[in-house]
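Problem: given the chain below (382 residues), write out its structure.
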Amino acid sequence: MKLQSPSRCLTAVFATLALALSFLHAENAKLRTPLGIPLPAAGPHVKIEVARKKLRDNMEQQIAEFLKIHNDARAEVGVPPLVWDEKIAAYAQEWAEKIAAEDNMIHRPNGKYGENLAGYLPEYGERPVHGAQMWYEEIKDYNGGVMDAVNFEAGHYTQMIWRKSTKVGFGIAMTKNGMAMLCANYEEAGNYGGEHPYKVDGKADAPPPAAAAQADAPPAAKKKSGKAAAPELGGGEAIGGMRFRFVADWITNSTDDTISSVSPEGAASVVIHRKPLPKDIDSPWDKIQENMAKELAPFLPGLTDLTEVSTEHDVFRSGVGMRVVTYTAKQNGKPVDVIVDFARENNVDGEGVVLIIRCIDQGSAAQAAAALAVVDSLRFKK
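Solution.
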């Protein structure tokens, strides 16, 4: 019998923690899809055959784009690219078929490879790359250090960029309700406690992603960037299955379905509202956008001259696919910018929409940055 050294025991503890946190992430993935599309209702899906056909449509392209998002992420941190491995893909396929048949997204116990899981809807054009996009969005949760309890929150992303991982393969299988289960396996496995995802002997071949652009900029450009200092965020509150943190010195109030936070001088506000929806509404996005003035009226009194500037689809915030609409308007005669992010709430029923409303006096750059920090603090309630 061979005993583990203390350092390997510690690694095993961290690895177990990573698995547990990955399970929580996987559960979140099960409750939504990468593009924010509501999951199909229980029972056989009316378009199941369409979904089944699209599941394996043009697999060469699906593999190529899956590899590309991984290898683009790895290039950002100076890590060599992954290569596709059919043996690993076959291993992943076995598990994808099992969890799809059971409609239960759980990690393989005692697996011999690293593993990431996600769920997506082929019927609406989603593919494995969209699952990988959710994993990549965890970059916001990674602080650039070694794997510890904090960085395990970004465990899907760190597995993608893990230097010692050299091969990858994925399997996909359909549940009876039309959702595809994606299982990706990596050799060798990543996310060992106390190890750095991409540095060798404490040094990286490339700067961390968030620092790369600034590192290449000349000193003068850095000084003139005009970037506001990051606001201090206080405690978090949850609504619609999502958790947010708020600026420490703002005035924040909450009810069962609304959280509002206003800057001390009143130049900016963030309102997060859970809007219930009837069960039979599958795609409420356009209807909400068409009636946005009415939607905003209860939260932004005195709002007039609402004019749409832009609409962005599939904007990912912590892996949540959102629609983001930007407006100009006047509030009590003062020019303001209004930005509304909205997505299906992250809960089992998925019967509501969460609206994230920012209203900022035009020209208030610091307050705009603070309001955006609140939105970017979005995390799934665990």
